[in-house]
Design brief:
The chain is mostly helical. The chain contains 2 helices and no strands. The protein has one domain.
């Protein structure tokens, strides 16, 4: 394989690793924020029914993408 191809493949791999790291960082921050809210005893806005609706919307949105 030509050396330029190796260089381009390495650039693509590095970019992919950066995207994964950013996604993981955001996921950890989101989980920590949710945990902090639960620890303070605050119920999510809308109560239990609002929570169910929000989760269903997330699931439906993920399937539509």
């Amino acid at each position: 394989m030509h050396p330029i191809f190796h260089d381009e493949l390495n650039k693509a791999r590095i970019a992919d690793l950066h995207r994964r790291a950013e996604r993981d960082r955001l996921a950890r921050a989101s989980a920590q924020a949710g945990r902090a809210r639960r620890e303070h005893g605050k119920a999510p806005a809308g109560g239990a029914s609002g929570l169910v609706v929000r989760r269903l919307l997330i699931i439906v949105g993920a399937r539509g993408a």
